[in-house]
């Protein structure tokens, strides 16, 4: 199993979208600045606000890229409000 996840930093007032096989360790890595050149290095208060279990890494990566291509905070909030949107996106793939 793989997960699509969305984390939020109150300090930056920003969302970050990613994918991982294990959410707990990945969140700890973001908060510990494990990824030196990552977008998430600007804060240490990242909190998990959404996760979706996907059948494989391909689906998780597809959804991650789709959301990032939208480049829209409004779209991220729409996903948070109505997660079923992601199932529709995968069905149209």
3D architecture notes:
The protein is an alpha+beta fold. 43% of the residues lie in helices and 26% in strands. Strands 2-1-3 form a three-stranded antiparallel beta sheet, with helices on both faces.
Can you give keywords for this protein?
three-stranded antiparallel sheet, 93 residues, alpha+beta
Unreliable residue runs: none
Helix content: 40-55%
Radius of gyration: 13 Å
Could you give a short account of the major beta sheet? 3 strands, antiparallel
Annotation field: number of helices: 4
Shape: globular
**How do the helices and strands follow one another from N- to C-terminus?**
EEHEHHH
Span between termini: 19 Å
Order of adjacent strands in the largest pleated sheet = 2-1-3
Helix/strand/pairing class, anyone?
alpha+beta
Overall pLDDT score: 96
**Strand-residue proportion:** 25-35%
What topology does this entry show?
Elements: E1 2-9, E2 14-20, H1 23-31, E3 46-54, H2 57-70, H3 73-81, H4 84-91
Antiparallel strand pairs: 1-2, 1-3
Summarize the structure.
The chain has 93 residues and is an alpha+beta fold. Helices cover 43% and strands 26% of the residues.
